[in-house]
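> call design_seq(struct)
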């Protein structure tokens, strides 16, 4: 299709994203950026990890999103004593029939809320990694395909490190975005107080969109135009995380490992989704700049020097964005 036809289709089909935001806003106060990133993950069929201190409505945001979709949803509370079978399922022996049958676990759903994901041990994380990457799980001798779409939306607390396990870099790289959830503003907190400081029943979202509509929108997102100059800009940003000395010599001792090629792919795909949400049929450099921190945040490994100087990954990303020339 030509550009005019694509622009018209995007204008017609992107309106559900506004309805989704409006419905979630009935439950969730503020956090527009968080809702925007969840919508990007939905359009890209990409896993997302939300990081923030307790009480910032991370779980509520995901529950609200699930309530808007006509699809399967499972909430799994990750704990240090969780076993892979608690996640995937297991084989159960029937003594009457003298045979085994498979009991599938909560992972067999479209939308998975992995609450406090960093509290589960390595065996559980390895089982989840297969599900995230291969969209399948193995129980006994049989491999089962997971439903389509399959999204893991995980939360973790960056402060309380007692009883937590650091996620492996290989698993972190499978997440499309890592979103920092921040405190609300004074006005937003006042609105939270007015809404929530009663014993009344907490509001919930209603189903407003089918999974077929989301999948149709994904096909449109794949057609969003991204200029060669913006593709080169994305590649330049990614390479600046790997060879930071060429971009800014002061960054060279601060980065131990840069972003993988998945960052290049995910930044382009997420930028297309952001353009679709905005009702545009093309990607702008600002789309890339807005999403770069969320795509790079969990893929850049800081050096000991950066940690000793209390320099965050976000500070380094901002310095890279300031140095790389925007097309």
């Amino acid at each position: 299709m030509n550009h005019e036809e694509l622009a018209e289709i995007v204008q017609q089909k992107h309106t559900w994203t506004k309805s989704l935001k409006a419905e979630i806003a009935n439950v969730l106060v503020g956090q527009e950026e968080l809702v925007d990133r969840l919508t990007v993950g939905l359009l890209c069929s990409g896993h997302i990890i939300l990081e923030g201190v307790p009480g910032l409505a991370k779980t509520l945001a995901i529950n609200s999103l699930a309530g808007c979709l006509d699809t399967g949803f499972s909430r799994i509370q990750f704990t240090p004593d969780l076993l892979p079978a608690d996640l995937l399922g297991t084989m159960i022996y029937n003594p009457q029939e003298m045979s085994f049958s498979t009991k599938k676990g909560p992972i067999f759903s479209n939308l998975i809320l992995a609450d406090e994901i960093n509290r589960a041990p390595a065996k559980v994380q390895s089982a989840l990694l297969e599900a995230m990457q291969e969209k399948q799980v193995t129980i006994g001798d049989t491999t089962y395909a997971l439903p389509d779409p399959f999204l893991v939306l995980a939360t973790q607390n960056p402060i309380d490190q007692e009883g937590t396990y650091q996620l492996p870099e290989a698993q972190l790289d499978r997440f499309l975005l890592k979103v920092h959830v921040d405190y609300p503003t004074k006005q937003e907190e006042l609105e939270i107080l007015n809404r929530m400081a009663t014993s009344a029943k907490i509001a919930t979202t209603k189903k407003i969109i089918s999974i077929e509509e989301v999948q149709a929108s994904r096909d449109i997102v794949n057609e969003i135009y991204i200029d060669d100059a913006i593709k080169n800009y994305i590649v330049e940003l990614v390479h600046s995380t790997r060879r930071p000395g060429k971009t800014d010599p002061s960054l060279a001792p601060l980065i131990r490992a840069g972003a993988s090629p998945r960052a290049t792919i995910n930044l382009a795909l997420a930028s297309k989704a952001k353009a679709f949400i905005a009702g545009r049929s093309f990607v702008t450099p600002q789309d890339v700049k807005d999403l770069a921190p969320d795509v790079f945040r969990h893929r850049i490994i800081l050096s000991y020097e950066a940690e000793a100087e209390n320099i965050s990954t976000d500070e380094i990303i901002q310095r890279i964005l300031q140095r790389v020339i925007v097309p």
